[in-house]
Amino acid sequence: MDLMRFLVEMVFDLFLIVVLLRIWMQVARADFYNPLSQFVVKVTNPLVQPLRMALPMVGRWDLASVVLAWLVGIGKYVVLSAIIGIPFMWGDILVIGTLSVLSQFLDLLFWIVLIRALLSWFAQGYNPMMALLQQLTEPFLAPIRRIIPPIGGLDLSVLVLIIAIQAVRIVIGV
């Protein structure tokens, strides 16, 4: 039973990460030709394209991808409830699904910011992965840098963002 629960959580969480990356890359206008971008688009297109017929783009936001992320978050808890045999209330599942998507996005943001910070110590020259990480994280870090500029060559914006992510997680209880 624990193995089945673990596998279901992993499959749903990994797919949700890919869908969230698709949304994030579209909003940030990240490089579409980056290999990671191509992977994300190819994995999510079979489910996003049918939804896109009913849900259009609104500015930078792809509503089809947002709805897909929400449905994956809900689906995870519906499947887990069915496996465990616990009856569920749809109102609870809708809220839990939404919190699941938000929690996963905060986890993804945390790790991408941390990976970008660590890679910045070792990066030499142009690297397509580093460029993509920069495109994704810069919208979050730039406003912090305007308030707290680098001090003596040390950029504290990453630290401030990581603290803010953890604070938000505590506030929303995920």
* Radius of gyration over C-alpha positions, nearest whole angstrom: 18 Å
Count of discrete structural domains: 1
Sheet with the most strands, sense and barrel status = 2 strands, antiparallel
Strand order in space, largest sheet: 1-2
What low-confidence regions span 5 or more consecutive residues with pLDDT below 50?
none
What is the straight-line distance between the termini?
A: 24 Å
DSSP helical segment count: 6
Keywords: Membrane, Transmembrane, Transmembrane helix
Pfam families: CCB3_YggT
Transmembrane segments: 147-172
Family: Belongs to the YggT family.
Write the layout of secondary structure elements.
Blueprint: H1 2-28, H2 35-52, E1 57-58, E2 61-62, H3 63-84, H4 90-122, H5 128-147, H6 157-172
Antiparallel strand pairs: 1-2
Helix pairs in contact: 1-2, 1-3, 1-4, 2-3, 3-4, 4-5, 4-6, 5-6
Structure summary:
InterPro entries: CCB3/YggT. Helices cover 78% and strands 2% of the residues.
Could you characterize what this model shows?
By secondary structure, the chain is mainly α. The protein has one domain (2-172). Helices cover 78% and strands 2% of the residues. The chain contains six helices and two strands; from the N terminus they run H-H-E-E-H-H-H-H. A two-stranded antiparallel sheet has the order 1-2. Strand 1 and strand 2 (61-62) form a beta hairpin. Helix 1 runs antiparallel to helix 3 (63-84), helix 2 (35-52) crosses helix 3 (63-84) and helix 5 packs across helix 6. It holds the Pfam family CCB3_YggT. Keywords: Membrane, Transmembrane, Transmembrane helix. Belongs to the YggT family. InterPro entries: CCB3/YggT. The chain crosses the membrane at residues 147-172.
